[in-house]
C-alpha cells in the first residue's frame, strides 16, 4: 500500500487529520508552504502519535517541487487541505486567492495525473450553498458564492467534477465542512490563527485568555430565537475522522461526490459564548455590534448523506468542543 499525501497538513484541520490517519495505520507524507501554519505542528503530531513522516516545505504552485514529492514517494491518494481561507482578505486580494487556491489546485491535479494518482479528498465548505438556499443544506442544491474565497471552492468543485467526467479512473470526494472548532484532547494541537482571529471560537479563546478585551457579537436582530447568528459547529476531531471514512469510500467508488460534514443542528452565538464560559469558568466580556457584511442568519447541514455513504456521524457536542478549545488555549497561550 502506498502513502497518503496531505497538502496543507500543518494547518488546523490538516494536522488533526494527520493524527487520525496515523492512528488508523496509514503512512503519510505532509506538504505545506507554512504560509498559515508552523512546522511545530508536524512535530506535535509525531509526538502525539509516536509515528514519523516526511514533511516537505513546498508551495503547491511549484510544479517541480510537487513532482519531487511524487518521485520520492508512492502516493495512493491526496487529501487536499492547502488553501487560503480568510473571507475578508479574499475580498481585498482576489487575485492572490484565485491564484493560490485555483491555480495551485490545477497544478496539483496535473502532477497527480502525471503520476497516475487519481484519488482526492477535497476540503470544500458550506460557503458553496451561497445565499439563495434554505438550511438544512443538502448536497443536491445549486452552489454559488458571494466572495472570492467562496468562488474558489465553487470553481474547484466544478473542475474536480469535470475531471471525473472526462476520466472515469478519477475518484473525488468533496467534503463540505460546516464550522470546525475544538482541538485534539491532548491540547498539543489546535487552531492557531495568525493575528486577530476572524472566527468566533478562536476570538472567544483570546478574550478568555486575556489577549483581547471583549467579544463583538455581530448582530442580535437576526430572525433566530435569540437574535444572534446560528451555525453548525463541528468538533475538528469528528471532522478529521470523516476524512478517514471518505478515503475508504473513494477507494471503492469512482466519480465526483460532494458530502456535507456537519452535525445537522445549529447553535447561536450566545449559546457558544455560554458553553465557552462554562469551559473556562469565567465570564466572557461581550457586546452587541452591527451585523458583519456577508453573514447569513442561519447555516446548518443535512448530515444524512455522510451517514448513508460514509457511515460517519459527528459524536462530540458543543460543550466538548469548547472544553477542548479552552484546554488547547491554556496549554498554548502564545500558540504553537
Ligand atoms: P489552515 O490555514 O490552518 O490550513 C491550510 C494550510 O494550507 C496552511 O497550513 C497553509 O500554510 C497551507 N497553504 C496555503 N496555501 C498553500 C500553498 N500554496 N502551498 C502549500 N500550502 C499552502 O486552514 P484550515 O482551517 O485547516 O482549513 C483547511 C482547508 O479547509 C482549507 O482549504 C479551507 O478553505 C477549508 N475549510 C476550512 C474551514 C474552517 O472554518 N476552518 C471551513 C470550510 C473549509
Ligand atoms: N461572530 C461574532 N463575532 C466574532 C466572530 C463571529 O459574533 O468576532 C459570529 C458571526 O457573525 C457568525 C458566527 O459568529 O454568526 C460564526 O462566525 P465565524 O466567522 O466563526 O464563521 P462563519 O460561519 O462566518 O464562517 C465559516 C468559515 C468560512 C466559510 C463560512 C461559510 O470560517 O470560511 O463559514 O461556510 F466561508
General description of the model:
By secondary structure, the chain is of the alpha/beta class. The protein folds into two domains: 3-181 and 233-261, Rossmann fold; 200-231 and 264-331, UDP-galactose 4-epimerase, domain 1. It contains eleven helices and 13 strands. It has helices at residues 12-23, 40-49, 63-72, 87-92, 94-114, 148-166, 200-208, 236-252, 269-280, 304-310, 318-331, and strands spanning 3-7, 28-32, 54-57, 75-80, 119-125, 171-177, 179-181, 215-218, 230-231, 233-235, 255-261, 267-268, 286-289. The strands form four sheets. A seven-stranded parallel sheet has the order 3-2-1-4-5-6-11, with helices on both faces. Strands 7-10 form a two-stranded parallel ribbon. Strands 8-13 form a two-stranded parallel ribbon. Strand 2 (28-32), helix 2 (40-49) and strand 3 (54-57) form a beta-alpha-beta unit. Helix 3 (63-72) packs parallel to helix 5 (94-114) and helix 7 (200-208) packs across helix 11. The longest helix has 21 residues, at 94-114. The radius of gyration is 19 Å and the shape is globular. The protein starts with a strand and ends in a 5-residue tail after the last helix.
